[in-house]
Design goal:
By secondary structure, this protein is α+β, with helices and mostly antiparallel strands. The chain contains four helices and ten strands; from the N terminus they run βββββαββαβββαα.
């Protein structure tokens, strides 16, 4: 640890290690006034994730999915979330893992993938970094039927949605998943820059 580092980790305990490792972390923080304070936080630790939004220029559509999310359900929603295809990295290259998740969830592999951003969805309680990509798709990119892995309990509906409808659903609260909102905003800005008038 550097002497000028304001954070000193004192202890880490594993509380659970099922889907993700849940750690109890005790650390000392040097505050701005020079004093030190011991803090304890619970943090989910994983290797990050990847998310991909595909756009079809000829049809003006995007590929999205709908699946049940228990966290959203417990937050008072119906739990069936509209999202971009995404998944955990598991130490894989983010772009390659993104293509694999696309194929598993939608049946499409896509082309022209480019990274637009990486972000921390909840830095207070997750170590996760999400790597976000935009790309394109057409019929030549279809490799299967999608739907996810049944052996992992996945039951994924594939949605080919008009891009303007997707933008409308973000504005009206039909699409609330963070990575999906972020990627749709990046796509909106790209389309606006190439087409001129605001979308």
């Amino acid at each position: 640890m550097q002497d000028d580092d304001p954070i000193r980790i004192l202890k880490q305990e594993t509380l659970a290690d099922d889907y993700c490792e849940l750690r109890k972390v005790t650390f000392m923080q040097r505050r701005r006034d020079g004093s030190e304070r011991e803090e304890t936080r619970e943090v989910y630790a994983n290797n990050g994730g990847t998310a991909v939004l595909l756009y079809n220029r000829d049809k003006g559509t995007v590929l999205l999915t709908r699946q049940f999310r228990i966290g959203a359900y417990l937050a008072g929603r119906d739990g069936f979330m509209i999202e971009v295809p995404a998944g955990n990295l598991d130490d894989a290259d983010p772009a390659e893992q993104g293509r694999a998740e696309l194929c598993e969830e939608t049946g499409f592999r896509g082309h022209g993938l480019r990274k637009v951003i990486e972000f921390l969805p909840n830095p207070s309680s997750l170590t996760e970094t999400v790597h976000c990509f935009l790309g394109e798709y057409g019929e030549r990119d279809r490799k299967g039927i999608g739907g996810g892995k049944e052996e992992e309990g996945e039951d994924i509906e594939v949605l080919e949605m008009d891009v303007m409808e997707a933008f409308r659903q973000v504005k009206e609260g039909g699409i609330v998943d963070a990575k999906t909102v972020i990627l749709l905003q990046f796509l909106r800005e790209e389309l606006q820059a190439s087409n001129g008038p605001p979308l």
